[in-house]
Specification:
It is a single chain. With about 190 residues, this protein is mainly beta. It has one domain (about 5-180): Methylpurine-DNA glycosylase (MPG) (3-methyladenine DNA Glycosylase, Chain A), CATH 3.10.300. It contains 3 helices and 10 strands. The chain has helices at about 20, 25-35, 120-125, and strands at about 5-10, 35-40, 45-60, 85-90, 95-100, 110-115, 120, 145-150, 160, 180. Strands 1, 2, 3, 4, 5, 6, 7, 8, 9 and 10 form a 10-stranded antiparallel beta sheet that branches. The longest helix has 8 residues, at about 25-35.
Length: about 190
């Protein structure tokens, strides 16, 4: 099994998170994703990485959320039922990996910002070979990218809630503590 820096190298011992896990309020899903295991299957090899940093984007009222201006071809996956990926390209160079949350019609998603050993959403997608081909796909083994339970308990006191990064244009929404950080490398 080939593993990237920060990956968890072991046989599969945990279960894939069901769609119901994601069909809850985005902030709750974001917090609960810390300590879960992001799994990428490439050419039959499984790369497992513990999620350490995420950001929540909460519906059309959230001025930092891509869906704040409504449903477009780009944001359509965000309006689906939770449990699918919303993957988009930024700055002409980076793919961003998000998992959609909530129910059909309510556009919310969690950006996966970092895993153990890999900080930064662009570095993460590059290391795990995540591209727009995964946009709109379910977080299941069939898609080649999914999230497992992992068995790690992250204490509330170990999680820092901070403002999101790079969304100053969103006014008051930029200051909301929707970034969840667990310093899992420490």
């Amino acid at each position: 099994m080939r593993c990237y820096t920060g990956s968890v190298k072991h046989a599969r011992t945990s279960s894939v998170l069901p769609p119901a896990f994601f069909r809850r309020p985005v902030a709750a899903v974001a917090r609960d994703l810390l300590g879960k295991v992001l799994v990428r299957c490439i050419n039959g090899e499984h790369i497992r990485s513990v999620i350490c940093e995420v950001e929540a984007y909460d519906g059309m009222c959230d001025r930092a959320c891509h869906a704040c201006k409504g449903k477009t071809p780009r944001t359509a996956p965000m309006f689906a039922a939770g449990g699918i990926f919303y993957v988009y390209f930024v700055y002409g160079m980076h793919w961003m990996l998000n998992i959609v949350t909530s129910d059909v019609g309510y556009p919310a998603a969690v950006l996966i910002r970092g895993v153990r050993g890999i900080a930064g959403p662009g570095r993460l997608t590059k290391a795990l070979r995540i591209t727009g081909a995964l946009n709109g796909k379910a977080a299941t083994e069939r898609s080649g990218l999914w999230i497992e339970e992992g068995g790690i308990k992250v204490a509330t006191r170990a999680v820092r809630r901070l403002p999101r990064i790079g969304v100053a244009y969103a006014g008051a929404w930029a200051k909301k503590p929707y970034r969840f950080l667990w310093e899992c490398d420490a």
